[in-house]
Amino acid sequence: MLIHYKKSYEKIAMGLLSFIPSEKDIRVLQQTISRYEEEEPWQLFLWKDGEDVIGVIGIYRDEGSDEAVIKHLSVNPSYRAEGVGKKMICAVDKALGEQVKLLPSDSIKGYFDSCFQNNEEKETGI
């Protein structure tokens, strides 16, 4: 289940984001979390499986823009290869609505493309 990030999930979100190679440095990680907490165009979502938070996905979308870019995507290693990343992408895409196109950043483009080898699959969801 996709949920919006709240300050009470800060440590969990930081832990999940730290699996991303570019976010290993604690200062970089703190700046990333601050950006999601303080800057309107940056939105962070968590993925819950039962009571466990197992994934995080962050997007950037300028107000009024018809495009949003996935900036961060991370899944707890214990849950990888189970389709969690794809489920998060589809859930965010659905939450944004049909008027907003969800695009991958360069850092996740390869993963994104492997999840959605044709546009039809993304449109129908999971």
Automatic annotation (TrEMBL):
GO terms for molecular function: acyltransferase activity, transferring groups other than amino-acyl groups. InterPro entries: Acyl_CoA_acyltransferase, GNAT_dom. Residues 3-126 form the N-acetyltransferase domain. Pfam families: Acetyltransf_1. Signal peptide: none annotated. This is GNAT family N-acetyltransferase. The lineage of its organism: Bacteria, Bacillati, Bacillota, Bacilli, Bacillales.
